[in-house]
Amino acid sequence: MLLGCAMTPRLPPLYALRAFEVAARFGSFTEAAQSLCITQSAVSRHVKTLEEQLGCQLFERRGSKLALTDTGRRLAQELKVGFRTIESACVAVTRQRGALRLKAPSTLTMRWLLSTLEAFQQAYPRQRVQLTSAWMDVDAVDFHSEPFDCAILLGDGNLPVDFNRLKLFDEWLVPVCAPALLGTSPWDAARLAAAELIHPSRDCRDWRRWLERVGLADAVAWQQGKLFDTLELGISAAAQGHGVSIGDLALVGAELARGTLALPFDAAVRSGDSYYLVWPAHGEVHPVLAQMQDYLLAHLPAVQAQGIRLLD
């Protein structure tokens, strides 16, 4: 006697589904092939195999261009979610035995994080952290497409809802210059207006924020001056005597203490941005993360300098 049983539908080959999803994402067999490290003809064959097995057309081929059919668009959307789920599952398995992968802004890395993490590794040699320092005009991370378990970002706290976050410290903007440029007489609006401004970002936002808060926005042409890509470059140019830059009070403390930087004004302005440690709200948390959080919080840079007024 034969027992009846439900037959599991035969799924298309995984390689064909993957080739189609990547080709749909790029809109090109050639770019899909480069991403998958296979030939363009192999991508084309895989997609044709998938179309034959599903019994429908997934792409409209218009010469050298590809356009998804309605059916192809729906399938691509579902496969995108499906492959992300598979990737997350694989990451969760490997995460338990790998290093905690951390992304952080370049200036923060050089001025605080690198030495702090080195001390953390010495204190906890079995807990490994792999740090990637990245230049970011606007700090961001995509945990779906980037290979990180967590990140430190500078922002106003308006973070994606699927992020967990831990606030580390606020950004306080303060003008900095070389001691030789400081002189003996107090700085005022006229002297600052005559100085060469150094901008650590191309939109000049930091000087604008500081000048507006202290009431000097109309007295100083903040749109003029030298433009740099990072706070680190701006501070370095100021230390070499090329002008007056804006620094983060928490990140210039070492130079102020050594006397390689000076403060022409005694007011630091809260920018409205803060540094946040963020990690995905869903999925397993890396076992090193909690210990690193506690260590960072216990070793935050000081934001108060002697004689400095903090203007919130």
Characterize the structure shown:
The protein has 312 residues and is of the alpha/beta class. It folds into 3 domains: 82 residues, Arc Repressor Mutant, subunit A, CATH 1.10.10.10; 95 residues, D-Maltodextrin-Binding Protein, domain 2 (3-Layer(aba) Sandwich), CATH 3.40.190; 109 residues, D-Maltodextrin-Binding Protein, domain 2 (3-Layer(aba) Sandwich). Helix content is 40%, strand content 21%. The chain contains 11 helices and 11 strands. The strands form 2 sheets. Strands 3, 4, 5, 6, 7, 8, 9, 10 and 11 form a 9-stranded mixed beta sheet that branches. Strand 7, helix 8 and strand 8 form a beta-alpha-beta unit. Helix 2 packs across helix 3. The N terminus is likely disordered.
Largest sheet entry: 9 strands, mixed
Q: Based on CA inertia axes, which overall geometry fits?
A: elongated
Helices and strands, in order, run as HHHEEHEHEEEHHEHEHEHEHE
* First and last CA, distance: 83 Å
The structural class is alpha/beta
What do we call the CATH homologous superfamily of the largest domain? Periplasmic binding protein-like II
Topology, number of strands: 11
Number of helices: 11
CATH class of the largest domain: Alpha Beta
Proportion in helices: 40-55%
What is the CA-based Rg, rounded? 27 Å
Mean pLDDT: 88
Whole-number tally of structural domains = 3
- What ranges have pLDDT less than 50 throughout 5 or more consecutive residues? 1-8
